[in-house]
Amino acid sequence: MLAALLLLAAARQPGELEIAIERLRNQRGILHLCLTRNQAHFPDCASDPQALKRSVPAATRSVRFGGVVPGGYALSIIHDENRNGRLDAVLGIPREGFGFSRNPVIRFGAPRFDQVLMELGPGFTRQTVRMQYLL
C-alpha cells in the first residue's frame, strides 16, 4: 500500500522538459515554442489556455519548461525569421523553419498529433528537435 501511495505521489510531481534545438538555418528572428496536451490545439496552440509557450531569440539552442505536469504532450516550434509572429508561407509551403517533438517526416501539412506525442513523467526529460526548412 505504501509503495502504491509513493508511486501516486511521484506521478503527480511536476517534471522538467529541456528542448535541444538543432539545424537552425540562421540566428535571425525568434523561436516560438508551444507545448500542448490538447489535440484540438495542435500544431498552433495560441488559443489553448493550458499550453506552455515560450518565445526566445533564434540564437538559443536549448529551452526549458519547468513545472510540467506528467502526461502526453506535443511540441511545435516555428523559426519566425522576420519577427512577424507567424509562419510565413508561399502557396501553402512554409518559407520559415518549423520543428516538432519526435521529429516526424513531413510530407504535406503538419504531422498528426499522435505522431509527435511524447510522454513526460516526473523528473527530467530531454527532447531534441531538428528544424526543417522547405524553401
Give a verbal description of the structure:
The protein has 135 residues and is mainly beta. The protein has one domain. It is 11% helix and 42% strand. The protein is built from two helices and ten strands; from the N terminus they run αββββββββαββ. It has helices at 2-12, 113-116, and strands at 15-22, 30-36, 52-57, 62-68, 71-80, 89-90, 93-94, 97-100, 118-120, 123-130. Strands 2, 3, 5, 8 and 9 form a five-stranded antiparallel β-sheet that branches. A three-stranded mixed β-sheet has the order 4-1-10, with no helix packed on it. A two-stranded antiparallel sheet has the order 6-7. A hairpin with a 2-residue loop joins β6 and β7. The longest helix is centred in the N-terminal third of the chain and has 11 residues, at 2-12. The chain is globular.
What keyword list fits this structure?
135 residues, mainly beta, five-stranded antiparallel β-sheet, three-stranded mixed β-sheet, 2 helices, 10 strands, 11% helix, globular
Domains counted in the coordinates: how many? 1
Q: What's the alpha carbon Rg, rounded to whole Å? A: 16 Å
Characterize the main sheet: 5 strands, antiparallel
Unreliably modeled segments: none
Q: How far is it from the N-terminal to the C-terminal residue, by CA?
A: 57 Å
- The helicity comes to 10-25%
Proportion of beta-strand residues: 35-45%
- Shape verdict: globular
Strand pairing plus helix content: what structural class?
Answer: mainly beta
Total helices: the number is 2
* Helix and strand element order: HEEEEEEEEHEE
How many β-strand stretches?
10
Average pLDDT rating = 93
